[in-house]
Specification:
The complex is a heterodimer of chains A (about 725) and B (about 500). Chain A is mainly alpha-helical and about 725 residues long. Chain A has 29 helices and four strands. The mean pLDDT of chain A is about 85. Helices cover about 75% and strands about 5% of the residues of chain B. In chain B, helix 3 packs antiparallel against helix 10 and helix 9 packs antiparallel against helix 10. The chains are: A mainly alpha (about 725), B mainly alpha (about 500). Chain B: GO terms for molecular function: NADH dehydrogenase (ubiquinone) activity; NADH dehydrogenase activity; ubiquinone binding.
């Protein structure tokens, strides 16, 4: 089969799984997850084959795998859509396929397949657990199966379809379609337990916050399409087209058309990748089941935001050469990315919920990537996107495994603690060893533990990019952020796994089944190893003359390629080393002796700043006051009540009140004396005729048939007459 | 021979069926409904035949029938279809049978109701098929009267107010329309649309009341615009709509939102732009501003409602605003690629809104029939007891929201693309409305489906029935097809748009 045809087919298996599950397979849990996993597996297989084929193309950037079809007729032309594999999409396809497959398999265990159904469980709420008679005849409390098990697999299948569609698209329109369908799935999965008010509100918040970005993005699409007549990457990001667009002024903040379109697309990224100021939805999104957090809110969907920014980089960087001042859009990226990275990391220090720490960490790491793009480090951004997908998916799944193990302990011991609160954990390394080792691999990668882990290499790439470009502020802030990252990671691992259990639930936590832990192992391999493909040239220990594979593979995609031979410098490397080891050590030192009931040591150290961090800088409250409440007022009071009800309808009703006055004048002055008698007579005649006609409705069928015959004859004559004329 | 009169057949079959119903017993509602349903399927089947035989490569009208009607004043019975009207004919002949199926909620005087419904269909089809201004006006009015009675006789509590408001608003528009048509007929000696389209733009009408010909023309233009703007409706002429839609019985609301509103938009595309190209170009900016206001305040108005049906009613103002935005862009940029794209988007949006609005109103009706309330604050958490209904509602609401992959997105994207080139600011401002579309849709879904279950409904509400799903499935299939492969429809519209604009 031609590789293009196979590529078209890649998104389809999960879609088929979704359709089948929706249309009836949902009656069987086993069938539902089999369909979903089979769909994800087929797509994975296809992706790996395509990836392998793509590696064999000599100049994949110059000759990407492409196939297009006509989609929308537009006057004399067609809007074409199609599929495309170039180095960027090949790399993305690789991590997307692996993480999706791992998460699908993991979900079977997470939702307690084969466990008994809980007596009080109902659709829309997380399962409460069931009573189960053990082999020894003891009645114990065990986790129960998810009541909406099949729906979960249906929705994640639809999501997987959309993500694959986005990755293989060769144009912004189908990318946008995948982007929005993912948004819908994210909404439905965050609000998976829809009967829970917090989950419901988080779902709505996620959808609407990202929609702010999406409407700007739609304008960006319209602008690009209007000016270039296409939405294909091949056209809109082609160097000569970009040069033309860069020469057209728009009058909006002095931006060129290229800059404006690039920025409009980037606002989409800000929403989807949860960058400041649209970051508020991602922490709340943790209301969804943990596999969802891992897949949508760490590995794939939020990565799609950065993916778009990477795609749009030619527009964003239009007119820039390394060494010259940043273009305004690049400046925006650098500032937003750097600020978000630091800001989110600082909040992560003060979170107790194991998933929320990871959520803020995700925002922060995505900020690293955006900042890297902002300072022109194209390959570093993609490299970090690649490694982050693996280690963050791993961390979320690991956190899910911890929560699942804790739930088990909480149910068995009837200990009503918050099973997601790290301060109730501790000592899990002994009861959940596989989870501990894999989680630590992910955590060390996130913290950038030197040499060994993937996160070290990719983060180092970003720091050295900022360093070699002499963006000192970006470099320093990101270095400090890396330190904070290592610190909160050590805090998380220490609180969760080290020391002794701080609750009964933690004491009786249980390692999960292989169906959950094996995917962790697979991801852990990548979280460690995925960085070795990106070791920079001239690195002292390896002494390679050539940069790692992923860098040489991706750099032809960089529109600035050829301008900046990145020289290896040891200072950023030393900084990476120091902040990572230092942060990890500090975090471990502070939290290793933590006892149940004590105040969080960071709270003691930071004082009032801590509560500011804990309350996430009060951003939700501020938004509520300046956006949400005014919007409700505009809708309910201004538009519905004042404008429509009082002003417009007030005039309409006023006018109509005038009419009866006029009418009664006419009636009393003219109607009654002049017309009335005649009118009454007419009415009486009508009643008379009506009474005669009533006799026709005799209830006798034969009579009706006769009438019918007459009607047919007459109408037949009419039709015949008309046709004869025409 | 039959093919030569295909349009007449489609047009008058509903009337013949309605007349035939006079002789059916009034106390057998089920039989009446089935009769009406099956006879209304005939125009649908004939429309499919029409669709199959329509050659979209040919410019201009097809299946034309032209017979003198009032020779004295130059009016003729002149019918024809092109790529702009054929999709509307299909929409009408599709939605009428579905609405008739949905009329199980009508509990009194079913016979009169169904007859009125069939008369209404003839009126609606007549507007789309007429190529003569006077004929157009006659059908325009025919469509009005049955709807008045449908609201007035079978409507909700506030039906008297709503129906009166509906008919007065529309009559107010019709008045100017009639005068303008008379004036054009008197000045040109014909009401024939094809002839007028080629001559009228260059004709100087007789000076009236001492006004200059240009002013007379501008007045006629505004008379047309007002009539159609009320029907669409364009802000600020929209306040009849929430009342009429909310008070109308479910099938009435389906047709009202699904087809009736399109008459106004169709009037813009068929009459205003071709007959008054200069004035359209001159005043297009105003229309674009009103469109943007409709989009934004339609969405805000919808968000401000706590009555489910009113919320859906307001959503029509929001969605039809995109049609008007497309019309404005086409008027401004006539003759360019932008205009063609904008018209493609506008007609596509008319079709898609017909599907999603009819679907939404029907689903509101399904809920109302069971709960006897439309108060959103009294629902909540219904998804757990009505999983299938919840899924169908989610799907339809997402189509209405313009989710990519479903029809609404394609049409909104085309309008935005077409309008951006012409009115970037108005387009950018309408994005506020597009955002709030999401807000009100999610508000409705949140208050109906999500959250803790209101125990009041626990064993009271029953799942959507098979006969109700039968109504939704064709709509949903079309929403999906229009999102995935819109070319089946768009190719036809595109060819016509290239010919007309």
């Amino acid at each position: 089969m031609a590789i293009e045809k196979l590529l078209w087919l890649i998104p389809l298996p999960p879609l088929i799984a979704f359709v089948l599950i929706s249309l009836g397979a949902n009656r069987s849990r086993g069938l539902s997850h089999s369909l979903a996993v089979a769909g994800a597996g087929l797509s994975w297989l296809g992706s790996m084959f395509v990836f392998w084929k793509a590696l064999q193309v000599k100049d994949l950037t110059g000759f990407p795998i492409i196939s297009t079809i006509n989609w929308l007729p537009m006057g004399a032309e067609w809007l074409k859509v199609g599929i495309r594999i170039d180095p960027l999409s090949a790399v993305t396809l690789f991590f997307v396929a692996w993480t999706i497959l791992c998460i699908f398999i993991y979900s079977i265990g997470y939702h307690n397949y084969n466990a008994p159904a809980g007596v009080h469980d109902q659709p829309g709420l997380p399962p409460h657990g069931a009573l189960h008679t053990s082999d020894e005849g003891k009645i114990i409390h065990v986790p129960s199966v998810e009541p909406m098990y099949a729906r979960f697999f249906g929705l994640i299948s639809l999501f997987a379809f959309a993500m694959y569609l986005l990755v293989i698209s060769d144009n912004l329109l189908t990318l946008y379609i995948g982007w929005e369908i993912m948004g819908l799935c994210s909404y439905l999965l965050i609000g998976f337990w829809y009967a829970k008010p917090s989950a419901r509100d988080a779902a709505v918040k996620a959808f609407l916050t990202t929609r702010v970005g999406d409407v700007f993005m739609l304008l960006g699409l319209a602008a690009l399409y209007t000016s270039t007549g296409s939405l294909s990457y091949d056209v809109v990001f082609r160097p000569d087209v970009v040069v033309q667009l860069a020469a057209i002024p728009t009058g909006v903040f002095g931006l060129s058309l290229a800059g404006l379109s690039g920025l409009l697309l980037f606002i989409g990224t800000v929403g989807k990748s949860a960058q400041f100021p649209l970051h508020i939805w991602l922490p709340d999104a943790m209301e969804g089941p943990t596999p969802v957090s891992a897949m949508i809110h760490a590995a794939t969907m939020v990565s799609a935001g950065v993916y778009l920014a990477v795609r749009a980089f030619p527009l964003i960087s239009a007119g820039w050469t390394p060494g010259s001042p940043l273009t305004p859009p690049m400046m925006v990226l650098a500032v937003i990315g750097t600020f978000t990275a630091f800001f989110a990391a600082s909040i992560a220090i003060a979170q107790n919920d194991i998933k929320r720490v990871l959520a803020y960490s995700t925002i922060s790491q995505l900020g690293f990537m955006v900042a890297a793009l902002g300072v022109g480090s194209y390959t570093a951004a993609v490299f970090h996107l690649f490694t982050h997908a693996f280690f963050k998916a791993l961390l979320f799944l690991g956190a899910g495994s911890v929560i699942h193990g804790m739930e088990h302990g909480a149910l068995a011991e009837d200990d009503p603690v918050d099973v997601q609160d790290m301060f109730h954990m501790g000592g899990l390394r002994k009861t959940m060893p596989l989870t501990f080792w894999t989680f630590s691999a992910g955590g060390l990668s996130l913290a950038g533990f030197p040499l060994l882990t993937a996160g070290f290499w990719s983060k180092d790439e970003i720091l050295s990019g900022a360093f070699s470009g002499r963006f000192w502020v970006v470099f320093i802030v990101l270095a400090i952020t890396a330190l904070i990252t290592a610190f909160y990671t050590a805090r998380q691992i220490t609180l969760t796994f080290l020391g002794t259990p701080r609750s009964q639930a933690a004491g009786h936590a249980q390692e999960n089944k292989p169906i959950m832990t094996y995917p962790l192992v697979v991801l852990a391999v990548f979280a460690i190893g995925a960085g070795w493909i990106g070791i920079p040239a001239g690195f002292p220990l390896t002494g390679a003359h050539q940069a790692g594979w992923i860098i040489t593979f991706l750099s032809p995609m960089n529109p600035l390629e050829g301008h900046s031979p990145e020289v290896f410098s040891s200072l950023p490397l030393v900084v990476s080393l120091v902040v990572s080891i230092g942060g990890l050590y500090l975090g471990w030192r502070v939290y290793r002796g933590y006892q149940a009931g004590q105040v969080d040591p960071v709270e003691r150290a930071l004082g009032p700043v801590f509560s500011l961090l804990k309350q996430k800088y009060y951003i939700d409250e501020v938004y509520s006051a300046i956006f949400i409440r005014p919007a409700r007022w505009m809708a309910e009071i201004f538009t519905a009540l004042w404008l429509d009800n009082r002003i417009i309808d007030g005039m309409v009703n006023g006018l109509s009140a005038l009419m009866p006055a006029l009418g009664s004048l006419l009636r009393n002055g003219f109607d009654k004396p002049v017309i009335s008698n005649g009118g009454d007579a007419l009415g009486n005649r009508l009643i008379h005729w009506g009474q005669i006609l009533r006799k026709v409705q005799s209830g006798r069928i034969q009579q009706y048939m006769l009438y019918t015959l007459w009607v047919i004859v007459v109408s037949g004559m009419v039709v015949f007459y008309l046709m004869g004329r025409g | 021979m039959l093919i030569g009169h295909l349009l007449s057949l489609i047009l008058f079959l509903p009337t013949i069926a309605a007349l035939f119903m006079i002789f059916l017993p009034a106390d057998r509602p089920r039989m009446l409904r089935l009769f009406a349903f099956f006879t209304s399927l005939l125009p649908f089947v004939l429309t499919l035949i029409l669709w199959g035989r329509f050659d979209s490569q040919i410019q201009g009208y097809q299946f034309v029938e032209n017979t003198p009607w009032y020779p004295a004043i130059g009016s003729s019975y002149h019918l024809g279809v092109d790529g702009l009207s054929l999709p509307m004919v299909l929409l009408t002949t599709l939605l009428v049978p579905l609405s008739i199926l949905a009329s199980t909620t009508i509990k009194t005087h079913q016979k009169s109701f169904l007859m009125l419904f069939l008369f209404l269909e003839t009126g609606l089809l007549g507007v789309f098929l007429s190529l003569d201004l006077l004929l157009f006006f006659v059908f325009w009015e025919i469509g009005l009267i049955p709807m008045y009675f449908i609201i007035n006789q079978w409507g909700g509590e506030n039906r008297n107010y709503a129906s009166l408001k509906f008919i007065l608003y529309t009559m107010a528009g019709s008045l100017g329309l009639l005068l303008a048509i008379q004036m054009m007929g008197a000045a040109s000696g014909t009401f024939d649309l094809i002839k007028l389209t080629s001559t009228w733009p260059d004709t100087s009408p007789l000076p009236l009341f001492g006004l200059s010909p240009a002013t007379v023309k501008a007045v006629a233009f505004w008379a047309f615009v007002l009539a159609f703007a009320i029907k669409v409706p364009v802000w600020p002429f929209h306040t009849w709509l929430p009342d009429a839609h909310t008070e109308a019985p479910t099938p009435g609301s389906m047709i009202l939102a699904g087809v009736l509103l399109k008459l106004g938009a169709y009037g813009f595309l068929r009459l205003v732009l071709p007959l008054f190209p200069t004035e359209s170009h001159q005043f297009a900016g105003w229309l674009a501003v009103l469109a943007a206001i409709s989009i934004v305040f339609g969405a805000l108005g919808a968000y401000g409602q706590n009555d489910f049906k009113r919320l859906v009613a307001y959503s029509s103002v929001n969605h039809m605003g995109f049609v008007v935005l497309g019309v404005a862009a086409a008027a401004m940029a006539a003759g360019t690629q932008h205009a063609i794209i904008a018209v493609n988007g506008a007609v596509m949006q008319m079709f898609n809104h017909g599907l999603s609005a009819a679907g939404m109103f029907f689903l509101v009706g399904v809920l109302y029939e069971r709960a006897h309330t439309r108060d959103l604050t009294r629902f909540g958490g219904l998804w757990s007891i009505l999983p299938v209904y919840g899924g169908v509602l989610m799907f339809t609401a997402m189509a209405s929201l313009g989710l990519p992959g479903l029809g609404g997105f394609v049409s909104e994207f085309l309008v935005v693309r077409g309008a951006w080139a012409v009115y970037p600011l108005a387009t950018a401002l309408s994005m506020i409305g597009l955002f709030f579309t999401g807000v009100y849709i999610l508000k409705a879904l949140k208050m109906v489906l999500q959250g803790p279950l209101n125990e009041e409904w626990n064993s009271k509400l029953t799942e959507i029935r098979l006969d109700e799903l039968v109504i939704m499935v064709p709509l949903m299939v079309l929403m999906l097809v229009n999102g995935i492969w819109p070319a089946w429809l768009l190719e036809m519209i595109n060819k016509a748009a290239m010919a007309v604009f």
